[in-house]
Design a protein that fits this description.
Blueprint lengths: L5 E5 L4 H4 L5 H6 L4 E5 L2 E2 L12 H25 L3 E4 L5 E2 L1 H7 L6 E5 L6 H6 L2 H8 L4 E4 L2 E5 L2 E5 L8 E5 L4 H17 L2 E5 L13 H9 L3 E5 L5 H12 L3 E5 L15 H7 L4 E4 L5
Parallel strand pairs: 1-2, 1-6, 2-4, 3-5, 6-7, 10-11, 10-13, 11-12, 13-14
Antiparallel strand pairs: 7-14, 8-9
Length: 287
């Protein structure tokens, strides 16, 4: 059985990162019992700043901002009847490195991501993508529908129920089995449907049969739909998510259908960036 009890919630207090807090009730139903908030003073972005910059004052102001914002988040967590914690003192440095470093004792990381419409983030790479590449534990990347306003950005939940329909990209590898294990456990707890997707990339995949796996899940009381289209994995994962109105995508970090590591490879990048719904990325289990 997989565990989702202890969740690390990194935030910079932006509307993008705060979308995670809109799903606390769903996450509790999936097994989350404790949420720890992590704020990192981002000093990595200051590397190009020329002389005369008061670093100590900048850190002081960022810490003050965090002290003002965190009580609002803790209130949301406690309102969802979850244990709330905060990592202090606030670390400073590269957010990706600090998040990964502080994640060791948690079951997974839940982190918001900027939408595909934010061109700068797609060019430079986001913190959420960096965390997904480097983390040794599962990373749940939360997406949101965004509206650009004159005074900033407003983010909306991408779906009403996070686990209503979970699309699992499955390729018969150990990591994808791990993704399916998380998805099926969550579906059992929440009553959600599993959409089991295997993409045939060539003739060799034709022998792979999803039916026994789907039937085994159904025998356990789960609602399951199995799909086996042929084509490009990333394209079809996104297409099938839209067609089935899946509310989350679950992926393994490596797979037989993906020549390189899924994280940072040709499949995960477009899925994470373009997906309209949250993406849960599991890591290859250590031997």
């Amino acid at each position: 059985m997989v565990s989702l009890e202890k969740m690390l919630f990194p935030t910079d207090f932006s509307p993008y990162s705060m979308i995670v807090a809109e799903f606390l009730e769903d996450l509790k139903n999936a097994g989350v019992k404790e949420v720890t908030v992590l704020f990192v003073v981002n000093t990595a972005k200051l590397s190009s700043v020329s002389g005369g910059f008061d670093l100590e004052r900048y850190i002081e102001l960022e810490e003050k901002r965090a002290e003002d914002e965190i009580p609002k988040i803790l209130e949301k967590i406690e309102k969802a009847d979850l244990r709330a914690k905060v990592i202090k003192p606030f670390p400073s440095g590269n957010p990706v490195n600090e998040i990964v470093k502080h994640s060791k004792s948690y079951d997974f990381i839940a982190i918001g991501a900027r939408g595909r419409g934010v061109f700068k983030e797609i060019l430079l790479g986001s913190v959420s993508e960096g965390v997904a590449r480097k983390s040794e534990i599962p990373v749940y990347i939360f997406k949101s529908r965004t509206e650009i306003l004159e005074d900033g950005v407003k983010c909306y939940k991408p779906c009403d129920k996070l686990f209503a329909r979970i699309l699992v990209a499955f390729d018969f590898s150990k990591p994808s089995e791990m993704a399916l294990k998380y998805a099926s456990e969550i579906a059992k707890r929440t009553g959600g449907e599993i959409i089991l997707l295997h993409v045939d990339t060539d003739e060799k995949c034709a022998k792979d049969d999803l039916k026994p796996i789907a039937e085994d899940l159904k025998a356990k009381g789960l609602k399951v739909t199995d799909l086996k289209p042929r084509g490009l994995p990333a394209k079809l994962i996104l297409e099938k998510q839209a067609e089935t109105k899946a509310t989350s995508i679950f992926l393994g970090s490596r797979g037989l259908g993906f020549p390189r590591s899924l994280i940072g490879g040709s499949v995960s990048d477009p899925v994470i960036r373009i997906s309209d719904v949250p993406v849960f990325v599991t890591k290859a289990p250590k031997l």
